[in-house]
TrEMBL record:
Topology class, membrane: Single-pass type II membrane protein
InterPro entries: Cellulose_deg_GH3, Fn3-like, GH, Glyco_hydro_3_C, Glyco_hydro_3_C_sf, Glyco_hydro_3_N, Glyco_hydro_3_N_sf, Ig-like_fold
Catalytic activity: Hydrolysis of terminal, non-reducing beta-D-glucosyl residues with release of beta-D-glucose
Pathway(s): Glycan metabolism; cellulose degradation
Name recorded for this polypeptide: Probable beta-glucosidase E
Residue intervals of the Fibronectin type III-like domain: 888-966
Lineage: Eukaryota, Fungi, Dikarya, Ascomycota, Pezizomycotina
Transmembrane stretches, start-end: 88-112
Amino acid sequence: MTREADLSSSREGLLKHGAATLSCDSLDNYRSSSELDLDELELLEGQTSPRPRGEWSPSKRKKDNGKENEHKRAQKAKRKRGWLRSKTCWVVSAILLGGLLVLMGGFKMFVYKKPQPMDGLSPPWYPSPKGGTYLQWQKSYLMAATLVSKMSLVEKVNVTTGTGWASDLCVGNTAGAFDAGFPPLCLQDGPLGIRFADHATAWPAGITVGATWNKDLMYKRGRGLGLEHRLKGVNVMLGPAMGPLGRMPGGGRNWEGFGSDPVLQGIAAAQTIRGIQDEGVIATAKHYIANEQEHFRQAGEWELPHAISSNIDDRTLHELYLWPFADSIRVGVGSVMCSYNMVNSSSACSNSKLLNGVLKDELGFQGFVQSDWLAQRSGVASALAGLDMTMPGDGLIWADGQSLWGPRLTEAVLNGSVPIERINDMALRTVAVWYQLGQDNQTLFPIPLEGNPRPNFSSWTNDKMGHLHESTDDDTMVVVNNFTDVQGDGKNFHGRLAQEIAAEGTVLVKNGDNILPLSPSGGPEHTRDRRRAKYNVGVFGEDAGPNPKGPNACADRSCNDFTLASGWGSGAVEFPFLTPPIEALESTFDLDQVQITQVLTNDLPDDWSAVHGTQDLCIVFITSDAGEGFASWNHITDRIDLYPQKGGDDLVKKVAASCANTIVIVHAVGAVILERWIDLPNVKAVVLANLPGEESGNALADVLFGRVDASGRLPYTVGKSLSDYGPGGKIMAKPNGVAPQQDFNEGLLIDYRHFDANSITPRYEFGFGLSYTTFTFSDLKLKTLKPKTPLPSPRPNATVLPPTFSTLIPDPETAVFPAGFRKLKNYIYPYLDNSTIKHEPYPYPPGYNTAQPLSPAGGGEGGNPSLYDEHVSVSVNVTNTGKRTGKQVVQVYVSFPSDVADVSTGRKIDFPVRALRGFEKAEINATETTTVEVNLTRKDLSYWSVGRQNWVMPDGEFTVAVGASSRDLPLQGSW
Ligand code: NOJ
């Protein structure tokens, strides 16, 4: 194994392997990182023999049900879902292969439907820009520099390398630099609340938050998340998620983010981050970037040796997938997590163009880049490419204790492979973020002490007593769970806010005969059978009811059983409680006047009314679930189709066949195809309640009974079929090579942009949702705040210089295990066994010694500050023409001038028909009018010119359209 192989594999390109032979054995025996990877990826200098491949056996320690080892479950799921299965594998593949060998001239052609992509499709960008270049970070960087200058090399390495999966109490942990005065850090999921924790809020999912279109609620939820994480002792919250963006409506983790549009996603992410960080907790913008599907996201997990490569052109990268990350950096996010997948054939966590060039230079990111868990695929190469922290610290295999950094990073610095300036910058960035967020305040972030462990919960047991170092051989039991309740109380009980968000994130898409809102004494008068004393309401479907085994019956929520309030995976949390819809319906209907019949199953006989009685009103609950790739339910991770699951369509049809007033409630991770019943005359109302979190039932009742207006708006398009979303909208469920290649050929045209460009009528368009009142828009005014000019101001010169340190390589003796040191098995230490260091010239990547031109689009956090200058003010009057108070979302879409030729190439530039550029939600009393203002920035009015490598505001006439959805835009103006 040579270091050249390392560079070709992990720096900028794809592994150069010959025809990898996939056999039943190799497929079945794949561990979470593949043998192929292990053999072909580099070992750091001095490591020439294969490492022992340890795999942590969770059976060593009894796990709680809900906290079962992620890796173990991934294995189970993998065994369930493999595209080649062990039992039938040999027989089926022998037949298939035999035939194919004859027909296609060999196995290789079968595996490689596409030719092996060329090495190095992502250009090199070196060296890694240093942090500490902006005034707003200067103080933190100066303090950090003082602290880092006191650190020994091994302490610096400690700051950069996780201690190993389950080695400490959080899902990710660093060991700290005690002598210098820097504590260990706890990194914990995640986007919906504190994973693996007790007495913490299970917030509505990101997709529900996106559906509120309410900036204030987005911020408040972030604040609640931040407070809870801080009170549990978490330093770094692993969220919010803004990638996947939602290229594919079936993407398994779309629900963790906020919707399929970069502006909606960016605003929601930024508001969430502001909230989290206002509580002093470091937020993590994840997953950087283009991790759009779960299939093949990670080497090994999907029985392939390599992760999928998302192949994206530069303009699409900037205008779609990067946009929310830019917004996050602009509000000062402390950490960015690089993703599992490759981008343009280079691993996202060692892609120098994306980390050094785009993130740190162009977007001016001042925080630290952490890897997703085992997304680091190389050692020196990833450090050079801009990775600052590896998580959870293990190498290519879960809990193996064989870090690609740790001692190997120490060694690489000592032998000169990793420049000392790079390790200094890695540690400095992390410490600077810690200061920037005020985590040196020991009242807010107490230093962990014996008897007062931080965090005050364990990810690995629900018991009070447990191991501090679960995956190691340290059997000492201590108090690990203090059961600290962080949910707030009284007026500040976070459940209230969670309920408000879930209610505002509920989208009413159909309301025939104004059947909603309901009255507690029954439905509307016209639905009542007057021969009966009571109004009869039937509630159908298991989604209305609680799971008899409790809301946390499935680990990481990886099943779709009973009421659905969260997707699954690391983005899920332990529900402290989950109010099922039936409970809220029962407590809201006046039972003296209403008879509720519960049929909480999806298995309904056709003649159900003969069994359960005829109903005046029927409320039917259906679901569609998905989740993260390490687990699966019913062979689902990504959704390969968008239909309701568990027979939901049949259930609705059966109920509607015998019930003239049917209301359908959908709990789902994203868009669901409603076509099999949406036009049935008896289906009067449809409510898309997304994933509401712990207060599910109460929030739904708020909307159904009109205690709040129905004010959710769709954060995605509901098409009539999956094909409506275009070829790019389909999950790649079968790999097209050993390193599957997914070309983002649709460019900018995802979700509603695809529907608009191809004149496809969706069932319900992006941004759509009904209220219980009506609104009109009038008096659109466009005011020029700054004139049109093609380019932003020149990149401002750095006003602050990064701190500098001695570049002397320390004495290797200082990096050797101290005498008598007690090593825990599998725990990752920065120390070396001895001080012998081999010096060989390191083959730095091509382009390494060529300083890159700084991006003209850079010069500030989130990019050149001039990109955020406001050029147009858009104001509009909105009148509530109905009879009750309601909330309307004013949406502003921009259409670019036609016939734009690129400034540098002269080539015609195509644009989406329209793109969302801003929104505001306003509460308006009946008959009143409010003026709403949305300002458009230079960036909103520019495209990314690949030739110019800058944002360009084209000449010509822009159309600004304002209204209630992407297809309901009554007002238009020109600028
Ligand atoms: C993998 C997931 O992709 C990421 O989102 C999460 O934060 C880590 N695991 C840690 O659980």
